[in-house]
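Dear colleagues,

As part of the handover before I leave the project, I'm documenting each prediction I ran so the next person doesn't have to rerun anything. This entry is a single chain, and its sequence is reproduced below.
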Amino acid sequence: MTGTIGTTIDTLRFATAGSVDDGKSTLVGRLLHDSKSVLTDQLEAVEHASRNRGQDTPDLALLTDGLRAEREQGITIDVAYRYFATPRRRFILADTPGHVQYTRNMVTGASTAELAIVLVDARNGVVEQTRRHAAVAALLRVPHVVLAVNKMDLVGYEEKEFDRIVEDFAGHAAELGLPGFTPIPVSALVGDNVVDRSARMDWYEGPVLLEFLENVPVCTEATDAPTRLPVQYVIRDGEVRYYAGQLVSGSLRVGDRVTVHPSGETSEITGIDVLGVAAQVAYAPQSIGVRLADQRDVSRGDMITAGADVPALTQEVRAAVCHLTDRPLRVGDRVLVRHTTRTVKAVVEDLGGAAELTANDLGRVTLRTAEPLALDDYAVSRRTGAFLLIDPADGATLTAGMVELNSPG
């Protein structure tokens, strides 16, 4: 399962989202329990708490609700991460809150996810928060989306109820530009189609949830995308300089011709250092140091690229955004744009016609930066196509942005 960096990725990052009372806590608990990913003492604590509530069977929602209660009291982080594994794959699960006022938290959890599970209560169907979660998944270009239609036991396991919800969701997905989704009928409470196949829904022939998670192709954007090395640090060793940072996409080889942005200067790679060891080639997402053939003025915040596919160098930034803080964002505001390792001053020129953006708002922004940024479209690269807006007064994070070099969708 270890694989080789750049060729095999055996860990799936996925996020769960669902409206309040759709059963997300129970679904996550069932997935952990039935995949044998719950420690004995955890299960005993849940069984004890369930008995105290007068329940004969363990309430699997308690495996996550304790952490959720802590979040809502401000004790711990806003997104709960769970780590588990099966013989086929390792998983990092981002459990995000369901309330509308925590939409920004779903953005946090889904920003690095390769798959999102959008949960729907079979009795209620697609509701406003379902559409909002689907919009976030589309906005963040999450490669795979699962529509988990939960509580099928409460609608008699009827295929027509499942089909109705799938058809409704498909209409919204098409409007949002969501490329596709996989619908799965489940009952998290009973365990139908979560880890084990249900005998009560023999009309369903697709994969159960865990089977899909184990076999869905993991995104290979990091190695397939154009080469991008944001410079984080310049290391001086006598007369030799190494330009260090994480290779966020693509690969670099000794002998490659490279371009430094924003200066546009070119050179050739004469050495690559990976964890103190000389290498001939490096792949994303390795952290490396590179040596150039020529003395160039390269510093933190510059970007080294290879090949003909270069980023757009611009001072006008158009992006889809999610506003993350209670402090409004308004036209004319002066902000800092943090893009990879580069931070520049900017002014908000337009908010897509809106007067302001407040917490959890999804919108669009146009910025004018004081210095050019080397940008990729977010649809091409989720790493070099993303940025944060920072308050220059106190360093608070204001907004998450996804670059739109082409016309907005």
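Residues 261 and 303 are 5 Å apart (CA to CA). The longest strand covers residues 362-375.

All the best with the project,
I.
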